[in-house]
Specification:
This protein has 3 domains: about 5-105, HUPs (Rossmann fold, 3-Layer(aba) Sandwich), CATH 3.40.50; about 115-180 and about 215-305, Serine Threonine Protein Phosphatase 5, Tetratricopeptide repeat (Alpha Horseshoe); about 315-490, DNA Cyclobutane Dipyrimidine Photolyase, subunit A, domain 3 (Orthogonal Bundle). It is built from 22 helices and 7 strands. The chain has helices at about 30-35, 40-55, 70-75, 90-95, 115-125, 130-140, 185-200, 220-230, 235, 255-260, 265-280, 285-305, 325-330, 340-350, 355-370, 375-385, 390-400, 420-425, 445-455, 460, 470-475, 480-490; strands spanning about 5-10, 25-30, 60-65, 80-85, 100-105, 145, 150. The protein has a 5-stranded parallel beta sheet with strand order 3-2-1-4-5, with helices on both faces. The chain has a two-stranded antiparallel ribbon with strand order 6-7.
């Protein structure tokens, strides 16, 4: 009997999602772009990756361009039964489960299966979900960075070694630049199609579509991985949280996009990093930091996305309902005077990417301080980042960034006054504001926003041992009324 066709989604593009000899169907649905106003570079990346994969598969694939997934599958497979690896989002899973002729197979894109995670939860007997516990379990069960039964180097967590501010005498880290691709005729075709769709009014985009910056093929993704491990991983660790205006990439891997397209498997990424450690080509703090991001945080977020349920993305424990302002929705960096926020917003506008610290401590912190609606912010991150997928952004924004789940995922809200940004970056240099000033025209929006946030949620924060100190600081603030009045006056204007 001939094997049934296998349906590949656009984030299942690596070889680990296919068995040998199985025929393939792929559906490029315009409805995926019509539903939300995505970043132009994200749309380009996804379509380029899908079309490149179809070109590689040749006669083995039936590639259909259609208005919706249902229409496309009907054209590609008719009434035949097809298989599909478990999709990564709830919406896609609902779609395939609603189609009688589609058989859903287990996912193939992560280290930890849902069944393994359920077993880990059962063994814990209801204990609180903590990243550190999960990460150590993954390390042990997959024998990652282990020396027998002990962690390599004798420590599980090297975060303390990975929080250095950037060098104060340089505009960049001085490491080799990241691997970058060369566009081809498929990229040109994608760009023409996107231009045409916009002209015809079928879709609307935000952001700029410059030269493609991220891999769209398996070969490109492996090149990017090899380049990172060889040239950038050694310096990754200690400056992992630092920011430089002139070096937005720092030593980060830029592998989130190919990982989330399914072009790389997380196992090969962490195993290659560990080989660099064992051969003496990268230090433990850098390798552990990289492994923690992929085998720890990425796996943790994916599991929590399913574990917390469909209603999780609507959680709003802090009761923040302010709509996102137009300048933020439009990525209008030129409307912003605060250099840190303007710089980061411009990076999103121009590339659809920033690393995790600007996401959390510049973009997310500003939203949290001003009470922006967490569901709307989640959608913004999903739409505006090239590596944005529902399973990624719902836990990261609702839980980590906005504390909208009331502490299910993290132990405290992540926000700070301008002093943190000043310490961890050069983004305050030449700014119209001063991080230490709380009142007056030069008062830093992050400093006034921080104290306003603490004041607004003082009862909640006072009851948390990790944030009670902030409330005590608020009580010693002699000019709090002036700070709050300034925040009220600034309102929704771009800072």
């Amino acid at each position: 009997m001939a094997p049934r066709p296998h349906w590949l989604f656009g984030d299942q593009l690596g070889p680990h999602f296919l068995d040998p000899g199985v025929p393939v169907v792929m559906v490029e649905a315009r409805s995926a772009f019509a539903r939300r106003r995505s970043h132009r570079a994200k749309a380009h990346l996804l379509l380029s990756a899908m079309r490149h994969r179809a070109a590689e598969l040749g006669d083995r694939v039936r590639y259909v361009r259609a208005g919706t997934y249902r229409e496309g599958l009907r054209e590609a497979a008719g009434d035949a039964r097809v298989t599909v690896s478990r999709p990564s989002s709830r919406a896609a899973l609902r779609l395939v489960e609603s189609m009688d002729r589609v058989e859903v197979l287990p996912d193939r894109g992560f280290l930890v299966s849902r069944e393994e995670f359920a077993g880990w939860l059962e063994d814990r007997g209801g204990a609180r979900l903590r990243l550190e516990d999960f990460y150590r379990w993954v390390r042990r069960s997959h024998d990652l960075l282990m020396d027998g039964g002990e962690p390599a180097g004798g420590r599980w967590n090297l975060d303390h070694d990975n929080r250095e501010p950037p060098p104060r005498d340089r505009d960049d880290l001085g490491v080799p630049p990241p691997w970058r691709p060369h566009e081809d005729e498929i990229d040109e075709e994608v760009r023409r199609d996107l231009d045409r769709w916009e002209r015809e009014g079928r879709v609307r985009f935000v952001g700029r579509d410059g030269p493609r910056l991220f891999p769209v093929t398996r070969r490109e993704a492996l090149s990017a991985l090899r380049s990172f491990v060889a040239h950038r991983l050694p310096e990754f660790g200690r400056y992992e949280d630092a920011m430089l205006a002139g070096d937005p990439v720092m030593s980060h891997s830029l592998l989130s996009a190919p990982l989330n397209l399914g072009l790389l498997h997380p196992a090969e990424c962490v195993e290659r990093a560990e080989r660099a450690l064992r051969s003496g080509d990268a230090p433990l703090n850098s390798v552990e930091g990289f492994v923690r991001q992929i085998a720890g945080w990425r796996e943790y977020v994916q599991q929590l996305y399913w574990h917390f349920g469909a209603d999780y993305r609507q959680r709003n424990e802090l009761r923040h309902h302010t709509r996102l302002p137009r300048w933020f929705l439009e990525l209008d960096a030129d409307a912003v005077r605060a250099r840190c926020l303007s710089t980061v917003l411009a990076q999103v506008r121009d590339t659809g990417w920033t690393h995790h610290t600007p996401r959390l401590m510049v973009l997310g912190s500003h939203a949290l301080q001003h009470g922006w609606d967490p569901a709307e912010l989640t959608d913004w991150f999903h739409r505006c980042f090239v590596d944005g997928h529902d399973w990624v952004m719902a836990p990261n924004v609702v839980g980590m960034s906005q504390y909208a789940d009331g502490g299910l995922m993290t132990t405290k809200p992540y926000t700070s006054a301008g002093a943190y940004i000043h310490r961890m970056s050069d983004l305050c240099d030449g700014c119209a504001y001063r991080p230490a000033e709380r009142t007056g025209e030069r008062a830093c929006p992050y400093t006034t926003g921080y104290w306003s946030f603490v004041h607004r949620h003082r009862d909640l924060l006072a009851a948390n041992h990790r944030t009670a100190r902030a409330v005590r600081g608020l009580e010693r603030l002699g000019n709090l009324p002036e700070v709050l009045a300034l925040e009220e006056e600034r309102g929704r204007r771009a800072p």
